[in-house]
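Take a minute with the sequence and fold tokens given here and flag any structure token that looks odd. Thanks in advance.
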Amino acid sequence: MPAGTRRSAARLVAMVLLVALAGGCAGQRDDSTAAGQSTTSTTVAPTTTTVPPLDAKELAWLKGVSGVSAKVENSFQAQGSGQVTRAIVLESSRKLAAWSRQLRRLGSPSDRLQPAYTLVRKAMQSYDKGANCYARAAGVISVGGSLDSEAEARVFQEMFDCGNAGEGNGTNLLYRADAKGKELKAKYG
């Protein structure tokens, strides 16, 4: 065999042995580490995440809820007693609709203010229902301020009671939402 051919054959045999060794050892663990050497592992300490304080948008939303709540409170203090007229019932309807609109304008707050927002949404629904009931009650009263039949008087009373219930329930929910907002503000800063 010529010398060049012998070297080529030797290289080929060496390469085949290397491939065989590499393939045979694949998937086996290195016993040198297990037998004599120890490995050090590091454990990562758990990190504590701090919750950021409320941002300006969240604080503005809470302030808006408190503002509407204060308007509602002032409205009850300013109410007088007297004869219920068509104008008074229509004004009550407009008042409830205005409170609902003001709350709607605040929009939906961040996730962490959702407990207060759930109560605000329920208050808006109650105010909307009360406003509709008051409007229907006002529609029953004639322009002169009288109820012409017993049926009209019954419908008026049902709708007026419904309006009062919507106003009362909505106000209670709004007060609860305001209190929940203050609680969340204290929690998140």
Notes: The chain has a mean pLDDT of 82.
